[in-house]
Amino acid sequence: MEAGSAKILSGALEKEKSVAQKPDTVLVKAAINGDADSFTELCRRYYPAMVAIAHSILGDRHLAEDAAQQAFAKAAVKLQQLKKENRFAGWLAVICRNAAKDMARNVGAGLRVCPTEDLSMVAAKSRDDDTTETVREAMSKLSASARELIFLRYYDGMSYEQISAVLGISEQAINGRLRRAKKKMADYLRRNGFGKV
Amino acid sequence: MDKEKNEKHLDELISRAINTEKPQFDAEKWKQKYPDEFQMLLWRAAKGDSARQSNILKVILKSPLAKLAAAALIIIAISFFTARQVPTEKADTNTVPKVTKYPVEMVTAISLERAFRRGGIEAVEKQCNEAFKPIGPRPKRASVEQILAEFNGT
Prior knowledge:
The structure holds two protein chains of two kinds.
Chain A (H helix, E strand, L loop, with lengths): L1 H20 L2 H9 L3 H23 L2 H18 L9 H20 L8 H9 L3 H13 L3 H12 L4 H8 L3 H21 L6
Chain B lengths: L1 H17 L8 H7 L1 H12 L1 H15 L1 H22 L3 H6 L8 H4 L2 H24 L11 H9 L2
Helix pairs in contact in B: 4-5, 8-9
């Protein structure tokens, strides 16, 4: 009996391993034909990226996870509408962005922006919490796309290649945009008392 | 050097501000949270056959060669159909439609002339046979030429 269940378990593990090794396009094709394991693997692969995108819009980790899961649910329903299998990540990102924006409208969420008169006070403080708060303020000053890029890059240490698949832009463009976003943030932090940034 | 240091410092600050703990996807929880959507995904596997059929259609529509072949097939089918619709000369002579309804009318000069125009002497003979059927067998001695001669009064 135990040997039987062990065999089943090892079989399931092997299947999971083989699914995990498959490229996106193969998984997407299988998922379109109703293979739940392939779809689950795709979700597992893109969950951090989707949470990062939603987080950049909602400003809250838990809400971002909800939005990402909601995006997967919508994707499961609309999967047959996907025209190019190699564009799955970008297509999913669009769904996730919309889900996060809807959620932000419903719950009134969004990256918190402190009144400007408080910023100098916040920056002057040397405590870690305040530093983090000021960095978040700097992020909130970025455009939505630049903020999304920052989140994708720093959330899970995603490579330029991975970010390129999700956003559908070249790695050079990512590099340029990331540099500009960081420069803007550094300028903001300098203006608010972070001399060494 | 300072620039590098500054950049590293900024990277650290951003990482700290974003809470970079990697989120883990829990498939089981997700299935429980969205049962309808998950069922919809599974439902697609059940109707996989029809999906495969539509895939074949997709392949035909995508490939220019397949498109050409499909177009040629349609043209052949149409031409075959129309060719069957056009009556041949042979068909004309073999299937002569009745020009009149009653046997008496069938052997009038006008009706026989019409039959001749449609199918020649064979059609006339056929029409005569049709006309004589209700009134019994035709006398063996009387030929079509004789009957025609009688009608023409010659």
